[in-house]
TrEMBL record:
<dbReference type="GO" id="GO:0015934">
    <property type="term" value="C:large ribosomal subunit"/>
</dbReference>
<dbReference type="GO" id="GO:0006412">
    <property type="term" value="P:translation"/>
</dbReference>
<dbReference type="InterPro" id="IPR036919">
    <property type="entry name" value="Ribo_uL30_ferredoxin-like_sf"/>
</dbReference>
<dbReference type="GO" id="GO:0005739">
    <property type="term" value="C:mitochondrion"/>
</dbReference>
<dbReference type="InterPro" id="IPR005996">
    <property type="entry name" value="Ribosomal_uL30_bac-type"/>
</dbReference>
<feature type="domain" description="Large ribosomal subunit protein uL30-like ferredoxin-like fold">
    <location>
        <begin position="20"/>
        <end position="69"/>
    </location>
</feature>
<comment type="similarity">
    <text>Belongs to the universal ribosomal protein uL30 family.</text>
</comment>
<protein>
    <recommendedName>
        <fullName>Large ribosomal subunit protein uL30m</fullName>
    </recommendedName>
</protein>
<dbReference type="InterPro" id="IPR016082">
    <property type="entry name" value="Ribosomal_uL30_ferredoxin-like"/>
</dbReference>
<keyword id="KW-0689">Ribosomal protein</keyword>
<keyword id="KW-0687">Ribonucleoprotein</keyword>
<dbReference type="GO" id="GO:0003735">
    <property type="term" value="F:structural constituent of ribosome"/>
</dbReference>
<dbReference type="Pfam" id="PF00327">
    <property type="entry name" value="Ribosomal_L30"/>
</dbReference>
């Protein structure tokens, strides 16, 4: 198990006021009940994230479609977004010099 999944497993979802839900599997081929649940959660396309309040109703809906979605707390979502932003940040250019190094003769 990688570190992200380990953190996800120990994060107390019930204590978070907001849940960030991402659809990670496709809708075609799923049950009609699951499709209607995803529609009620406003999840229409893969890799889209929505924010919902952490209520028993929403948690029950998520329990129904747990194999199709990834659930994150607000802290986990913000950490993931920061990591993605740092990964895509501009880096200074590499300067490569193809000229031979100058000879240092001290004699």
């Amino acid at each position: 198990m990688n570190a992200y999944k380990a953190y996800k497993a120990c994060a107390p979802i019930a204590w978070s006021p907001n849940l960030y839900i991402t659809l990670v599997r496709g809708i075609p081929g799923t049950r009609k009940l699951h499709r209607r649940t995803l529609e009620a959660l406003r999840l229409r396309k893969c890799n889209r994230t929505v924010m919902r309040w952490n209520t028993p109703t929403v948690r029950g809906m998520l329990q129904q479609v747990k194999r199709l979605v990834a659930i994150e707390t607000e802290e986990m979502y913000n950490a993931r977004k920061r990591k993605e932003a740092n990964h895509c940040a501009l880096r200074p250019p590499l300067v490569i010099n193809h000229l031979p190094a100058p000879a240092n003769n001290s004699s």
